[in-house]
Amino acid sequence: MDLARRDGTAALDGIGSPRRSGRLVLEATVFDLGGTLADSAATWARVVGAVAARHTGTPAIRSTGHWADDLARRCPGLTPEAAVAECVEGMVDALARGGFGLLPGAADLVAAAAAAGPVALVSASPARYVLAAVAASGLRFAAIVTGDDVARGKPAPDPYLLAARRLGVAPGRCLAVEDSGSGIRSAHAAGMTVLAIPNPATARDHEVLRLATHHAADALIATKTLTSLPYLHRPWA
């Protein structure tokens, strides 16, 4: 049964999701941080290498995607928890020195989303770094979820489910903006519509990219995509 109203305003689709003229209507946007908004990847690599060099004399580590565990295995006497603490200090110091900032177009992307509804941030990184990065960026979020807030991080759906709960919006009414494979899987598993701005590794993973409804090469193009989507609180012609 078509429950979309003739005047184009929101109606329910029978399962509680608002729709406008037969299209799913969004209410909120949830952003990833590193690689999506923050140009932090190169700095993380330098910081992790510096920690390895400090403990072993060489910056080279074999990465499995779990850098704290990789560092702990590479550096005798260094626990994963201590590795996280050292790397976070290095990243916070880099922020204080202006070592990195937002990706081009990221601020405008968040502003466009905020004009349409509440925005949240989901990051797998520890809270100390995430909050420092947000403060340095000048961006504002209605809710922030960090790696310290959940027992199961990305690619589990828990971080995005928590963000939706903190926003007070059903996950199915949220747009998630992500660059990584684990983040796309996490948001998709949470039931969110995904806008992918794939990093180089993700761009080669066609299985992951199929989980995203929308794709953009960078934040500038993502802004155009986002502003074309139907949001409940955006003025609608």
From TrEMBL:
InterPro entries: HAD-like_sf, HAD-like_SPP, HAD-SF_hydro_IA, HAD_sf, PGP-like_dom2. NCBIfam families: HAD-SF-IA-v3 (TIGR01509). PANTHER family: FRUCTOSE-1-PHOSPHATE PHOSPHATASE, GLYCEROL-1-PHOSPHATE PHOSPHOHYDROLASE 1-RELATED. The keyword Hydrolase applies. It comes from Amycolatopsis heterodermiae. GO terms for molecular function: hydrolase activity. Gene3D superfamilies: HAD superfamily/HAD-like, Putative phosphatase, domain 2. Keywords: Hydrolase. This is HAD-IA family hydrolase. It comes from the Bacteria. Pfam families: Hydrolase.
